[in-house]
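Question: Send over one sample?
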Amino acid sequence: MDKNTITGFLLIALVLILFSWWSRPSEAQLKEMARQDSIAQVEQAKLAEQEKQKVAKDSVNERIASVDSTSAFFSAKQGEVSNITLKNEKVTVTLSTQGGVIESAVLSEYQNQQKENVVLLSKDDSHFSYTLETKAENIKSEDIFFQVAEQSDSSVTLTTAVTGGELRLKYLLHPDSYMMDFIIESEGLDNLFSPSTKHIDIAWENRIQQQEKGGSFENRYAALTYKIKDEGTKKLNEMKDVTKQVDKQLDWIDFKDQFFSSIIIAHQDFQNVSLQSTPEEKNSGYLKYYNAQMQTFFDPSGKQATEMQFYLGPNDFHTLKSTNKLSLSDKNLKLQNLVYFGWPIVKWINRFFILYLFDWLTGFGLNMGIVLLLLTLIVKALVYPATKKSYLASARMRVLKPEMDKLNAKYPKQEDAMKKQQEMMQLYSQYGVSPMGGCLPMLIQMPIWIALFNFIPNAIELRGESFLWANDLSAYDDVIRWGKNLWLIGNHISIFCLLFSVTNIINTWISMRQQQSNAMMSQEQQAQMNMMQWMMIIMPVAFFFMFNDYSSGLSYYYFLSGLTTILIMWGLRKFTDDNKLRQQLEDYKARHANDPKKMGGFAARLEAMQKMAEEQQRMRNKK
């Protein structure tokens, strides 16, 4: 390609760029185009809604036209669709006269990321239905129309006439509560059913809307959960597409996300239960699709009503626990178990210590960031004796380093490693030093560290609470963000997570220096230690990518915990006199110089192994 051709192409490109710039619409024109697009979208939405209503009306008309006049439910299958609203200070529930079922549930005191009231159930995303198996036909709830017999702001009685009898639905929304009673009564219907019919089939499905920022962290805590009668709670896998047949009777089934629950409770138990949980596509605005198929008690004669309840509210430990008192039966619903506090030991730490401490601190009306700071300091103060004991055990090993170096010089060969180890254990025994003394106190602290890992993400009190640059301590802070998702890191950097990772690296470095100063190792062991240290450095870096989407409150707590650990270790190092500590060890050795030394445990096993190795070597030399 010659010079003139290249020049021609460049001129053509320049002309196209200038023409595009000159012909682009002005700012006013862009605004007008956006306004027109908005108007068009509104008109399109109106037309879609009108079409939807027309389809629904046509469907009802077709159903009415196809009703069998000989059916006992002939009159029940004719009617008009209308909505009924039950409301208290906390929740608004909408029912439909078609089927007499719940269509939507909206919480009044909680908002989502769009600053709109949290919607737990909606007409578009959820569907509740039941089926009655008569001798002649299966009657589905969507085929039945109810009329309002009695109604108040928080209760309604719906009835529908059936040949020879009546079917009644009663709803009662408890005042200042998230609990709603749901009772099914029948009268004079026993002739329509087989004598063996003692159950009603129930189907419930819902797409769980994303309520929190990002959704990925929220998704980890969204799980279809259920309680087995006279036992504990179980859940389906949060991250997999799961279908499960439950062969035991259940007390309740919960469509749960991180902070909210939609629970159906059966006071005559659920049986023949089939459950399904399917993760939704990322960034779809939904977390999971839940589906539950089950049966519960139904008496066609009307001698005993079918008693169920709905809990539609937050996963707040105290709220759930107090709601147990509203149970229609003597069942202990144990709804508070929905707030996950971890495995048994960790669970009891959270339940009987961290929770009460957290409640006490929040009772002062402090900002949640300050509450977490005080919580960290109190926990660190309580475990300080164990931390100090661990440090002093490490310091004793450090001041004995010269003696260990002598053993290294005495046994430079690899084949003498067992003798060296045996004399080292004897040295520890003489000076009253335990090589495991620094590990046990640290292990005691681990359950508390894990307990707070489970407690903070489930504390609804942190939801929507801001602190410093984080506008919601229950979600990640994203002051540093960009438009495109990048591999491993996503579209933001959580500053609290970054600070947590930095303090973790510093703590790791301090720990490695202590190990180096205490260790008595060969060259091969030193090489292995160097490799392990690199792995220990890489782990905090990996934590950054793992926790970048986690709750900023959790990262903030770990940052505070790591920072206080650094300060404590610095203080202990500064105010520990190695010379004085060495003198204490020498005094111990002098006091026990005449005591018979009996090796036990690990040292005794090493001695036995040494004798066995020596005997084997002697036999080989003899041969």
Summary: The mean pLDDT is 81. Residues 27-65 form the longest helix (39 residues). The first strand starts at residue 83 and ends at 87.
